[in-house]
């Protein structure tokens, strides 16, 4: 019997529910694994996939979105060892799993906390309801690799947005492995799209893209790049979340800010007594 | 070439007089190599067109668009808006060319004509009981005359697929000839008479084989078509690259045989700039640059125009455009 040769994994992009290689055919090495090096066109394709998924995801009931996010937590729990093998501490995997559950619970509660009836001087019911802003570009923080990533994706999608995530260039393995979790969690294709590679290639494309509604610059460490991205984002009035400081404590209570920053408010006037 | 072409033309014009001669001629056309045609089409689709060439291709494609709306729900307001868009597809950029034509149902022609008056944008109308073509000849001809009188200068007719597939070629031939007459062809010289171009829709999705597409192309050209068009857009299989390749070969061979140039219009299912550029590459490689002009090649499309405009904006601004910034129809 000859000795068995181990099968090595190629870490590919996650776009539209599929795992394509970069259209450029490029890859780079991280922890002895080949990881796709996404190009501008991959970013464009990811936005197309994210836009196509908005209608179905935003139109799904909050209850259904909550169930799916909870399902992500279930799947993540089962793959704990895989993340540990990549060097993610076990505690962090647990915290990330709990974060999915925490955000899953908010799906049908946020509209009550953040929306509601407004008193108006006239015979009307006046109701405000939060609605997703649409396609959100997210720059994931460099560390913690998994908890940071989950903490930026979950609040964006729980309200019905779809995301294009530029994963941390130095820690993409956890991001692609999380994509494998998402792909087996009943999450519709295109709701989360993950690009690996250099931020300098994908992020400017996303920041300038006219069909992206918001950009979360959390993981941008270069202040000049961040300022430049804000300028690009201003062209179509994207909502912008500024970078967080290096010492940010990701294990602390995240609060509602990340969810509410990516919402629009719809207000309806309904005549009384008709 | 002119001398031989003239003599050849007189030969071919006799064909329509007898069912036997027409059948012998059409069935004598060489068969289409299906695998070869599909492979050739796929191969031409892999060409990479970038930067300045892409910019030219996009502008040319915009000029070739027959901006189409053929729905039961069309209203005068909707077709007026469409005509306004045809004149100025991108209001933000004056350098953007206008489209080739607007294509509507006959009852909508007068509203479009008001908007297009005085412009270079043509006004096409479908006729002859579009899309099925299953009506008595008299009704089809009345349909055509009404559209021409209302101001259409291009008529998109459908062939009688029932008769074609049953092998009654003269019936199809005579219908095309009669429709051509109804377009004002016979009275072209008389002053004040409207004269419309005739586009003949083969509805290739219902013809089943490439051999039939080749025969129908020749039949339409022999009967006097100014353009041959793939599809109505109302059946599941619309324009495809291989079908268009077969039709382009037919117009090329027809010009070689008769000296008369006929245009080609793929319609239905062409939605992206990438698709449109594949067609342009195929035109250039199959029939040459003579056909790379809106007078000889058109795209029947509606959503294609927005994608062309978005790609055009990307090239001029360097930023990917979004559909929020272009009109819905």
From TrEMBL, chain A:
<dbReference type="Pfam" id="PF00171">
    <property type="entry name" value="Aldedh"/>
</dbReference>
<dbReference type="GO" id="GO:0016491">
    <property type="term" value="F:oxidoreductase activity"/>
</dbReference>
<dbReference type="InterPro" id="IPR016162">
    <property type="entry name" value="Ald_DH_N"/>
</dbReference>
<dbReference type="InterPro" id="IPR016161">
    <property type="entry name" value="Ald_DH/histidinol_DH"/>
</dbReference>
<dbReference type="InterPro" id="IPR015590">
    <property type="entry name" value="Aldehyde_DH_dom"/>
</dbReference>
<keyword id="KW-0560">Oxidoreductase</keyword>
<feature type="domain" description="Aldehyde dehydrogenase">
    <location>
        <begin position="34"/>
        <end position="240"/>
    </location>
</feature>
<protein>
    <submittedName>
        <fullName>Aldehyde dehydrogenase</fullName>
    </submittedName>
</protein>
UniProtKB/TrEMBL annotation, chain B:
<protein>
    <recommendedName>
        <fullName>Deoxyribose-phosphate aldolase</fullName>
        <ecNumber>4.1.2.4</ecNumber>
    </recommendedName>
</protein>
<keyword id="KW-0456">Lyase</keyword>
<comment type="similarity">
    <text>Belongs to the DeoC/FbaB aldolase family. DeoC type 2 subfamily.</text>
</comment>
<comment type="pathway">
    <text>Carbohydrate degradation; 2-deoxy-D-ribose 1-phosphate degradation; D-glyceraldehyde 3-phosphate and acetaldehyde from 2-deoxy-alpha-D-ribose 1-phosphate: step 2/2.</text>
</comment>
<dbReference type="GO" id="GO:0016052">
    <property type="term" value="P:carbohydrate catabolic process"/>
</dbReference>
<dbReference type="GO" id="GO:0004139">
    <property type="term" value="F:deoxyribose-phosphate aldolase activity"/>
</dbReference>
<dbReference type="InterPro" id="IPR002915">
    <property type="entry name" value="DeoC/FbaB/LacD_aldolase"/>
</dbReference>
<keyword id="KW-0704">Schiff base</keyword>
<dbReference type="GO" id="GO:0005737">
    <property type="term" value="C:cytoplasm"/>
</dbReference>
<dbReference type="Pfam" id="PF01791">
    <property type="entry name" value="DeoC"/>
</dbReference>
<dbReference type="GO" id="GO:0009264">
    <property type="term" value="P:deoxyribonucleotide catabolic process"/>
</dbReference>
<dbReference type="InterPro" id="IPR013785">
    <property type="entry name" value="Aldolase_TIM"/>
</dbReference>
<dbReference type="InterPro" id="IPR011343">
    <property type="entry name" value="DeoC"/>
</dbReference>
């Amino acid at each position: 019997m000859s000795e068995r040769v181990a099968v090595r994994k190629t870490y590919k992009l996650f776009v539209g529910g599929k795992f394509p290689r970069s259209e450029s055919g490029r890859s780079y090495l991280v922890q002895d694994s080949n990881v796709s090096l996404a190009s501008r066109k991959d970013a464009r394709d990811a936005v197309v996939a994210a836009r196509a998924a908005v209608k179905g995801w935003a139109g799904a009931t909050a209850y259904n979105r909550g169930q799916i996010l909870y399902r992500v937590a279930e799947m993540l729990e089962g793959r704990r060892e895989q993340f540990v093998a990549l060097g993610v501490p076990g505690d962090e995997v647990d915290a990330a799993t709990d974060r999915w559950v925490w955000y899953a619970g908010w799906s049908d509660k946020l509209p009550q906390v953040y929306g509601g009836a407004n008193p108006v001087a006239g015979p009307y019911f006046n109701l405000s309801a939060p609605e997703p802003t649409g396609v959100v570009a997210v720059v994931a923080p460099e560390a913690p690799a998994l908890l940071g990533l989950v903490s930026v994706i979950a609040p964006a999608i729980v309200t019905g947005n779809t995301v294009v995530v530029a994963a941390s260039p130095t820690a993409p393995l956890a991001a692609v492995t999380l994509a494998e979790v998402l792909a087996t969690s009943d999450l519709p294709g295109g709701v989360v799209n993950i690009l690996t590679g250099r931020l300098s290639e994908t992020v400017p494309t996303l920041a300038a893209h006219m069909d992206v509604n918001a950009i979360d610059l959390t993981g941008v460490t270069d202040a000049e790049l961040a300022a430049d991205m804000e300028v690009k984002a201003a062209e179509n009035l994207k909502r912008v979340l500024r970078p967080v400081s290096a010492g940010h404590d990701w294990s602390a209570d995240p609060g509602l800010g990340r969810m509410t920053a990516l919402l629009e408010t719809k207000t309806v006037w309904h005549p009384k007594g008709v | 070439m002119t001398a031989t072409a003239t003599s050849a033309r007189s030969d071919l014009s006799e064909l329509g007089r007898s069912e036997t001669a027409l059948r012998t001629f059409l069935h004598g056309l060489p068969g289409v190599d299906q695998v070869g045609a599909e492979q050739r089409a796929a191969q031409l689709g892999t060409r990479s067109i970038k930067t300045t060439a892409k910019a030219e291709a996009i502008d040319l494609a915009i000029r070739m668009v027959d901006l189409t709306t053929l729905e039961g729900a069309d209203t005068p307001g909707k077709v007026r808006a469409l005509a306004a868009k045809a004149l100025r597809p991108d209001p933000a950029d004056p350098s953007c060319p206008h489209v080739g034509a607007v294509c509507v149902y006959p009852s909508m022609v007068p509203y479009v004509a008001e908007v297009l008056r005085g412009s270079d944008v043509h006004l096409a109308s479908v006729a002859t009981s579009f899309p099925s073509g299953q009506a008595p000849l008299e009704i089809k001809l009345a349909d055509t005359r009404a559209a021409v009188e209302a101001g259409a200068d291009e008529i998109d007719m459908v062939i009688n697929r029932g008769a074609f597939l049953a092998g009654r070629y003269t019936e199809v031939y005579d219908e095309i000839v009669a429709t051509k007459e109804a377009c004002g062809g016979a009275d072209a010289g008389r002053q004040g008479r409207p004269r419309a171009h005739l586009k003949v829709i083969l509805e290739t999705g219902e013809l089943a084989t490439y051999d039939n597409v080749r025969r129908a192309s020749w039949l339409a050209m022999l009967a006097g078509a100014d353009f041959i068009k793939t599809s109505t857009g109302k059946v599941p299989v619309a324009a495809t690259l291989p079908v268009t390749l077969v039709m382009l070969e037919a117009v090329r061979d027809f010009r070689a045989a008769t000296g008369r140039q006929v245009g080609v219009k793929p319609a239905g299912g062409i939605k992206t700039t990438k698709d449109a550029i594949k067609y342009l590459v195929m035109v250039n490689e199959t029939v040459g640059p003579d056909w790379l002009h809106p007078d000889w090649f058109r795209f029947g499309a509606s959503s294609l125009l927005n994608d062309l405009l978005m790609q055009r904006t990307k090239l001029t601004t360097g930023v990917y455009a979004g559909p929020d910034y272009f009109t819905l129809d």
